[in-house]
Amino acid sequence: MTKSELIENLSRKHPSLSTKEVEAIVKDILELLSHSLEEANRVEIRGFGTFSLHYRQPRIGRNPKTGDSVKLEAKCVPHFKAGKSLKERVDIFS
């Protein structure tokens, strides 16, 4: 599902809100989530999952095209861990 599909679905589900209002709400939620991660805060949405940052050590990598060694700097990357109820809902083998 893309962001525009999410906005369309929410607009249909809540006809009292205009599409522009729903779009603004979705953008605000995503902006707040991004801002919180920028400040190295963990974001927990109960029943859905948690967003956090994981630190990656500096290392020597390889350029896949040339095979040359490349020095990669340390960095933080976003990480998502699904919550228990989300895992149960998407488990198609149970």
CATH class of the largest domain: Few Secondary Structures
At the fourth level of CATH, the homologous superfamily of the largest domain is IHF-like DNA-binding proteins
Please state roughly what percent of the residues sit in beta strands, choosing from under 5%, 5-15%, 15-25%, 25-35%, 35-45% or over 45%.
Answer: 25-35%
| Largest sheet data | 3 strands, antiparallel
Radius of gyration: 19 Å
Per DSSP E runs of 2 or more residues, the count of β-strands stands at 5
Helical content class: 40-55%
- The 3D shape can be described as elongated
Describe this structure in words.
Belongs to the bacterial histone-like protein family. One of its GO terms (cellular component) is chromosome. InterPro entries: Hist_DNA-bd, Histone-like_DNA-bd_CS, IHF-like_DNA-bd_dom_sf, IHF_beta. Pfam families: Bac_DNA_binding. Keywords: DNA recombination, DNA-binding, Transcription, Transcription regulation, Translation regulation. This protein has two domains: 1-40, no CATH class; 42-93, Irregular (HU Protein, Chain A), CATH 4.10.520.10. The radius of gyration is 19 Å and the shape is elongated. The protein has three helices and five strands. It has a three-stranded antiparallel sheet with strand order 1-2-5. A two-stranded antiparallel ribbon has the order 3-4. It is an alpha+beta fold. A hairpin with a 3-residue loop joins strand 1 and strand 2. The chain has helices at residues 3-13, 19-38, 84-90, and strands spanning 43-45, 49-56, 59-62, 69-72, 75-82.
Short key terms for the protein model shown above:
Integration host factor subunit beta, single chain, HU Protein, Chain A, 3 helices, DNA binding, 40% helix, two-stranded antiparallel ribbon, 2 domains, alpha+beta
